[in-house]
Task: structure prediction
Amino acid sequence: MPVSQDNPAGTRGDAPPDRHDAAAGPPGIGRPHERRRGRQAEAARNDRLVLDAAREVFASQGFAAPVAAVAARAGVGMGTLYRRYGSKTELLQRLCVLAMTQASAAAEQALAADDPWVALTGYITERVGFRSGALAPLAGTIPVTDEMLAAARHGRRLHSRVVGRAHRAGVLRHDVTAVDIALLIEHFSRRAPDELTGSGDRLLAIAIAGLRPTDEPELPEPAPGWHAYEQRWHG
Result:
């Protein structure tokens, strides 16, 4: 069979030459977008490891703890940490965003629940469980970035919806505010990890039970507001 100009290799027109796609890189290595997704997934895993490690280290050693202690706890190298975060301040700012994103996810899950009381108590318990407020003592010690501000506003809206839904259903005492719930979560999640078992869980259950509507006297005034709660971060 003669070789045509359109098919110089002598292969049939319906059987393209068996060659590796140059865009995919060397054989055995994924395409660029696949490699990029892999790197992004690895970075996300490292972020989560560092966040969990930072909460544990800072809860037990305070925020003066060296970054090396966080890296060791997370099982990542200092080089990896500093390639991703240029300084301890940048690391802490990123951890704040991750913590608020995690809290927002818990709120979204609560809003999807059918029972407003189960949603509220599950939301509180979950956030305390992953020590959502453990980074609160950083307030006023690091600059607030636009990303932190956006995450905080989004989380506040979702948090208020969870609490407002419980109020409208009549399952949450009327004088408990959304900020009260935020401070409750913060208080219990800032305790050291070894205190979160046993009596810690019991005390949290007692606190949650006290959120139910009651004939007891009104809570002391003034009720905390969002302005004072958030102003802490601006020094």
Summary: The radius of gyration is 26 Å. The chain has nine helices and no strands. Confidence is low (pLDDT under 50) at residues 1-29.
